[in-house]
Design brief:
With 292 residues, the chain is an alpha/beta fold. It has seven helices and ten strands.
């Protein structure tokens, strides 16, 4: 940088309007300063926008629909933590099942958990109230509804089926202030033509799962170790597949639920996004078994 000396004239001229000149210079400086701030803010906003845009999932491999049925609930909070960690929204199907803590999935002890899921933006559907199994159509107007392992149970007509599905939703609404999203899943995925029609007439569409979406968390851990289940899911899942797991399984010795963390990471790395069934169009690119 070069400095050019300024030689003052012998006769010093008086400064005219010095007050106005200083004020004008000050104003110009402030204008330039404000303009610089605006420009910097705009650039910062643009940079932030570009960063956020790049952070958005590309979904190059498609969309998956992760769903959970109620279980003994011991790992429920940890499962919710994994979903939150990965910003994954899932769909939960609720029945009033026994829990490891000695209560039930829809009693007041579980209320904070369900409220948390609602706040975090998940979707919900009925899994019946008693979690019995639909075993067949009886006569012309009833269906057989039998507890697991029993030889006989109740016979439900249309009103009885609707009441069984709605009881779960009513209880959920008492706890959370919102109802279900128009879905249900039969325990074990076992349905009949009549029970599907009965449920549909009172506003519930049945949702099964894709063959590749069966995560196997209820299978024997000796025969189906966790690593093998993750490998199978990561290799076989395709765009539109509905995935299914549980909020705790009584029979499996080595729980599968901790593997949801690496599985979701692998699927996202492959270009999959996740969405709830509430945001999907069932029957249009959504893969589930034919209800049985």
């Amino acid at each position: 940088m070069f400095f050019v000396p300024v030689i003052a004239s012998a006769t010093k001229q008086p400064r005219k309007h010095s007050l106005r000149t200083d004020s004008t210079r000050s104003t110009c400086f402030l204008d330039r300063f404000v303009a610089s701030l605006i420009a910097m803010t705009a650039l910062g906003t643009l940079a932030l926008s570009v960063t956020e845009s790049r952070a958005q999932p590309v979904c190059s491999a498609g969309t998956l629909y992760l769903t959970f049925d109620t279980g003994h609930m011991e790992p429920a909070a940890q499962i919710a933590d994994i979903l939150a960690k990965h910003s994954v929204k899932a769909t939960f199907f609720l029945a009033n099942e026994k829990t490891k803590s000695g209560g039930f999935t829809l009693d007041d002890s579980q209320k904070p958990f369900w409220q948390r899921l609602v706040k975090e933006g998940h979707a919900f559907g009925s899994h019946t109230w008693d979690h019995h199994y639909f075993r067949g159509d009886i006569g012309t107007e009833r269906v057989s509804y039998v507890p697991w392992g029993a030889k006989s149970g109740r016979m439900l007509d249309r009103a009885g089926v609707c009441a069984e599905l709605k009881k779960s939703e009513n209880r959920f609404q008492e706890m959370t202030g919102r109802g279900y999203d128009g879905f249900w899943r039969a325990p074990g995925g076992k349905t009949t033509a009549r029970v599907l029609e009965f449920a549909k007439s009172c506003g519930y569409t049945h949702v099964h799962w894709a063959d590749a979406g069966f995560l196997g968390d209820e299978l024997s851990s000796e025969a189906y170790p966790n690593e093998a289940l993750v490998k199978r899911a990561a290799a076989n899942l395709r765009d539109g597949d509905i995935m299914m797991a549980h909020l705790g399984i009584w029979s499996r010795k080595d729980p599968f639920w901790p593997m949801l963390d690496p599985l979701i990471s692998q699927l996202k790395a492959k270009g999959f996004c996740f969405s709830t069934l509430k945001d999907a169009k069932l029957g249009g690119g959504i893969n589930q078994r034919v209800a049985r």
